[in-house]
Amino acid sequence: MTNFKDHFSGHAADYARARPTYPAALFSYLAELAPTRGLTWDCGTGNGQAARGLAEHFARVVATDASADQIANAAPHPRISYRVAPAEDSGLETASIDVVTAAQALHWFDIDRFFAECNRVLLPGGILATITYRLTEVNPEIDPIVEHLADEVVGPYWPPEAALVEEEYRSIVLPFPELTPPTLEMAVDWDLTAFVSYLGTWSAVHRYRAATGTDPLAMVWPQLSAAWRQGSRRVHWPLSVRVCRKPSGNVTT
Known about the structure:
With about 250 residues, the chain is an alpha/beta fold. It has helices at about 10-20, 25-35, 50-55, 70, 110-120, 145-155, 160-165, 190-200, 205-210, 215-230; strands at about 40-45, 60-65, 80-85, 95-105, 120-135, 180, 185-190, 235-245.
């Protein structure tokens, strides 16, 4: 198996509980673009957030992740087959896939090799979609606290790959002609406990804890709890979605 930088296996269960789900409109859009509604591949599935959305529109979903712990925490679904496999060597049949998704995952891959694998497994006319998101947007009181946590407190502990998320994958050249997706976002109503649980899934937070033996969330808790006050708040993540289509004449054997 290809070596991969595993920043999430140690807290896969927390990741499954605390990460938001993608909007239904994203998967409706991808289904409209797909050559058929047959088989899709969600690569770097984590615990299946995007795979479950795809399963609402396609007959079958293969959801892979290089982390066995992430797959072990994935929610079962009758149309989803979870597998431990690297992005660059999926084990899927050539020209068998309608849609490939990489949701908050592309930056962890060997991107050139992953794109070559997409070219191999996609049907002519098939779709590749990369999805990423940066910091939350809540309100003018809370957002600067989260930015301070991300940039100043745990900033040195982000892995280098996080720079691609910061620039929303814009420097990456997609392997096929690019399409223009609609504007999309994730949004949930969370209380402060749920919000802090999400912050705790950041790879930089875990790297900070491992390096220092202290919790960076404790450093921002007084300001965060004072700004949040009580009850639930609407939490937004604008999505950066890049979509491309394999040309119909591009057949890989």
